[in-house]
Design goal:
The protein is mainly alpha-helical and about 120 residues long. The protein is about 75% helix and about 0% strand. The chain is globular.
Length: about 120
Amino acid sequence: EMAVFAQFSSELDKPTQTLLAQGERLTEMLKQPQYSPMPVEEQVALLHVVIHRMLLELPVNRMTEFKAGFLEHMRTQYADTLREIGRSGVLSDDNAQTIEKAAKEHLTQMMPPEDAAQEAEKEQA
């Protein structure tokens, strides 16, 4: 509904812009290949990163790249965390912190801090 509203509004306030940006990123993270469902623990990790607004500075056109790289990073460096989430069905505080740490590591690898600021400026222009 908010995206439809935004089409007809000439100026949006900052909270509305953030909400729309968050929605775009959430939509991209939820996309899965047909007949190839993503394991629940990987979905949990991705959703946690988006819900905690860790990707707002990453352009939407790089979400697929982030998703692939982040999941690979989680599978290779933090497999125990994914297994624990899958086994227990619970996202503990420790596992949430590990996911956030992994996301920060991957984001830094994808976009050094100075690149992130430049990309965010371009997207808002």
